[in-house]
User: What shape does this take?
Amino acid sequence: MAFTQTGENGIQAGHVDTLNANIQIVLPVAERLTNGAIKRANNALSKEFYCLFVVGDDVNFDETYTGSFLVDDDRALERSYTDEAIRDRFVYLNEEDREIIKTFPALFMHENHKYGSTDEEQNAYFGRITEIRPHGQKVKVKYHIISSIPQQQLNKLLDELCLHGTNKFNELNRMHWAIKQVDLFDELNSAGISIL
Assistant: This one.
């Protein structure tokens, strides 16, 4: 048996029972600036927090990978669904906070079609926020979708994804925006859900 190794810092192992590897996920997204120039965002996505957006049927994720929607102020970072310390940290959406939030991976979806569950055809979407800012009495969110996930699979991960509720009614049944202190990549991977 022969092994060929190129590059720096490589390791060869004949047999490994368990391998823990740190992987940094960088998802470049192009953003159009007000002057028409295109800025490429190369920020690595956080493994500590993620954003959850449950929106109304007026937002159509199926037809486009980019777009925007509005979240009512009273549904943004509600105390019912976002821990108080996280809410207090980000509720004012100052410029520094907005840049940090843009590094959080995000789940975008419509409300469940049923109480605590949905049909097999309904998809949620994994992606990132390209812009977030106050917009009158609302919050404007611009997004970039990377992949789809059967939403019913997320209904089965209430504890893992720190989603409030039960199998009868959970936060995927209510339009809102929440920030969760969860490693979204690890939890989805552990559940066998591919996002890339």
